[in-house]
Amino acid sequence: QVQLVESGGGLVQAGDSLRLSCAPSGRTFRNYDMAWFRQAPGKEREFVSSISWSGASTVYADSVKGRFTISTDNYKNTVYLQMNSLRPEDTATYYCAAKTSTATGWKYWGQGTQVTVSS
Predict the structure, then answer these.
(1) What integer pLDDT is reported at residue 1 of this predicted model?
(2) Which of 37, 39, 53, 80 is the residue whose CA sits 20 to 30 A from 92?
(3) Which has the closest alpha carbon to 113: 15, 13, 35, 21?
């Protein structure tokens, strides 16, 4: 069974940093685009950041631009989300997703990791 497994969430104070990790279980995603989404209570899931399979292209939501950095370690087949200068509004469940470079939708999803930022 293909699965993405996120880790690294936790409870931090405003201004702190966290690094989320996402690794696949059951297959390799080395030729897949990867992304992070988040969903806060009572809100819809929203896009946070994505990175192309080659690592050459990254995209960020305006709300996290300049504070979050997405990266991959293809040897470990892992994607990271470095989150700096965290704000209370970053509180959400963060999900990892994967798709082939030609697909239009994100096919594989993780179960999520909770990030809580206190003021």
Answers:
(1) 61
(2) 53
(3) 21
10-residue stretch averages of pLDDT, the chain, 119 residues long: 88 98 83 94 96 92 98 85 98 95 91 97
Strands 113-118 and 92-100: antiparallel
Question: 20-47 burial, b if ≥16 CB within 10 A, otherwise e?
Answer: bbbbbeeeebeebbbbbbbeeeeeeeeb
**Residue 75 Cα distances to 22, 78, 89, angstroms:** 13, 8, 33
Q: Which of 81, 48, 51 has the alpha carbon at shortest distance from 65? A: 48
Per-residue pLDDT at 112: 96
* Dihedrals phi, psi of 9, to nearest 5 degrees: -70, 170
